[in-house]
Every structure is written in structure tokens, then in C-alpha cells.
Design goal:
The protein is built from eleven helices and 27 strands. The protein is 16% helix and 25% strand. The termini are far apart. Strands 10-11-12-13-7-6-5-4-23-24 form a ten-stranded mixed beta sheet. It has an eight-stranded antiparallel beta sheet with strand order 17-18-19-20-27-26-25-22. Belongs to the PHAF1 family.
Amino acid sequence: MPNKPAMQVHPRRGLGFLTLGASLHDILTRLKAQPRTYPTIDISYSSSEPLMIPVFLNLPSNGFRLRFDGPDQRLRLIEVLDFTKTQLRYNDKDLFKFPEASPTPAVDTGPAFRQIYNRMGLTNLEEYIPPILGSGSDQGILVWSYPGVAFTFPVQHANWSPKVDFVTLLSYTAPASALSMAIFDGRSWEEARSDLMIRACPYPRSLALSSRGRESRPDEVDLVRVGANGKILLDRRASSPFQMVLGKTTPQDLVAELGPPDAIYRKYDRRLSIHKTPPRDRKTGRAYSRSPPTNSDGLVDTDESSTHTSADDSDVEDHEMVKENTSSDLSAECFYNYFDHGFDVFISYPANRSPTLSPVESEEYGYESNTKKLVATKMLLHGNVPGSYPFNRYRRSRWVIDFQIAELDVNLDSETPYTALSESLAELWPGDLNKRAMVLNRDFWGDSPGSSCELLGSWEDSTNAQKKGMESNAKGGPGAGNTKLYGFPGLLFEVLKNDAVSCLTVY
């Protein structure tokens, strides 16, 4: 097999760098960074239940299929379906070799049972699966398992007998090549497949944490617990929880606990400024007429041309007053982007706000009065929902809304459809607040992801979007990138048309 990549087989752990438990975002990012080795990447998912049904990542040019659970998007199963695409090695030796007379083997050629037996040894973890009744097939499947790895072989049902041992059956009675190989976490395939998608993962989501040098990297966040009045608790994989308090947690606290951000983003978007309270002069109390920042302030504003209008002398005077008072403040405000954690934190100067819920006990809440100090004032938790516009920009962040109040009808978590979430939250805030929505068009508000992936599920509102690349889908028909924003006090939900929450903003 000349010019074929070689990958080490690690039972119960993974295949090469593909580590069980790794996040879909981490695996997909690594694969996309090697287009020559992995030229084709297909993603299959459920368009109606993208957070409940497993996500399949197919690599036809490499002969692999990767299976991720829906809620946490962690790698649970690695399948080798074509042994001719990649050279497999076990303990630094070839797991099998193709005959020299056939440098280009047939597609259905796989390792013989004797090759696997000689390389991996004997096992008593066998299982025979007879052909399905009424299928018309006379061929069953024999699963030859070791802890964490299993092979399947075709067997004529007429040749199988419980009195014949499996070694004899595969070596003499029905010698055949393996059809596939599976790598999983478990003692045997028969034992593991019952809870394959829900069992605890022994390895972290981050591939970097699975490799050397992990001591210098921050621990990953398992779950974000959103409490009342700006309190957010971050449960971590191996470290103690870290509590953020909006309006009090400083950027230094974030770097110390979560590590430096993957990126820092500064942007002032005028399209939302209409919903804000206009700034006022501290001496006169008069409201300014215009939001001040421009590109000359060092900020990114992609829509300046569409919002620029002529101004009279009074507007110019007001504009200069605002610029003098706030340009330095706004240039310091920014988003800390934590792509590997799955969230953003907005760093700004605090301002007064109403509490999320009335405190049960007498305690202080809200922002500090020291307006000269930058603090975390907002947190964006990204869902990484397959089929959404920002898919694979962030690792999926799982969250739960925990106000520590009376029992509600449903779980308030990241997997709950928004309709059920809103019905329960409406019990806390009576009225029609949750029914009012703003439409957010991702087609025009952001750049195309420019992905080489092929999405095999349906795009949000496009029936002809199947089997097209992400970039063409994102630039597709009207409304293809539309989402809706629903607000509750302190909470803002971005909801897709399939009722999945794409992003939760806590402020």
C-alpha cells in the first residue's frame, strides 16, 4: 500500500490522533487543517433533532466513519469500513499486510482472521449475529472482540453452529477477510453498544489535553450553570468549579482560571444601538444624538457605510462630545473568544441593570459602582448546532439554568427545545415577554464560514440545500440563515427553525 497514511490502533483510546471523547469541533478542525490527507469530509445529522440524534462524520477517502453523541458532541465510536485506504498499525507493527502480488487490492479486501489472531492474540469475546429473518440473506456476522476493539467477519449461516468454536469456524470452515473494525470504550462490543452514547468518557474533549504538555493548559469546562442575578458557575473536568459574577469578575480572573482567550474581538454594531439607552452628558444630563465610534477609533465596524447620514452643526458638536467622553472606554471594551471552551465573555465597564430574579435572601446584586474597572458583563454560550450558520466556529457549550427555585415542568438545559424552555420560564415572568422575537439574519450579519465540509442534513429553511457545501448553503435562498431572538430578564435565546437553541446570552 504505497503512499497510504499509517495510523496507530489504540484499543479503548482511539486511532492515531482521533481520540475517543474528543469534541466534534476539535476533530473537525484538525481534519480540515489537513485537506490533502482528508480531502472529503461528510457530516450526517438529524435536521429535526440535531442535539439528540448522533452525528456521523464520514471520511470516504480514508475509509473511516466517526460517530459522535448528539447532546455533548463527543467521539464515541471509530469505524474502519475500508481497509485499503489507510495502513493500520498496532504496537508499532503493521496490523496486516496485503499480498505483494496485489499492490492495489480490491475494495472488499480486509485483514484475514489469521493475521488479526497472530497480531492481537486470543480472546473469548465473540458474538454471532444471524441474518435478519425475511431479508433473503443467508449470511450472518461474527463479531470478534477484544477490549476496546472489534472486527466483523461474514459467515454463511449454514456453516455456523454453537458446537463449533469460533477459531475453527473463521480459520477453516469459513475463512474470510474482515468487513470492518470498530474502536470503542468497553470490554467488548456486545457490552459497550448498549450505552455507547451516554457512558462517561475517560478522555477530555480537547485533543491538546490528551497529548503531552497538558499540564500547562487550562482545564476544560464540562457544564455552565446559569444562576440568578448574574452568577454563573463553571463545572470543570478535573478542577474545582469557577464562579463568575457578571459585573464583578475581572479579565484577570478569567485569564487565571480559563487561560488567555483564543482571540479578542472588538466591534461596535450600530444596528443594535437603537435598542440602547442613549448616553447623556454628565453635566447637563442631555442625551447625545449619535453613537460615536468610527473606524478611526481602531474598532471594527463593517456597516458604517449603510448607517452614515449627513449631520448638521449641532449633531457634529454632540458627536465630538460623545467621542471625547467615550471613545477610550469603547476601545477598551471587547469580547474574549474562548473557541475551545464554547463561549465568549464580553468585557466592558459596568452599568446598572435589574436583577434576573428577585433575590430569595437579602443580598447585594448588580454591578459594582466603580465604573473605571473593566469587568465581565455578558456571556455567550454557543450550541454548535449542526446546520446552523456558525457551525464549528466554537466547541459545543452545555448549560443548565439553575435558579434554585420550585420545580419546573422541564429541564432548563441546552438540549431542551426552546418551546418547552419558554413555557417554563414564562411561569417566572408572567406576560407575553417571551413571545416577542427579533429576526437575526446570519446571511448578512457575518462572513461565510467557508467550510469544505459537506452537510448531509437539511439546512434551516432550504429544501434543496442537501448535499451542498456549508459556504453555498450559507449564501443560499432567502431566510437560509435566519434565526430568532427571544428575551427574558438577563437571558437572550437565539433559536433556530427546528426549535434548537443556537446561542444563549447571559447578561
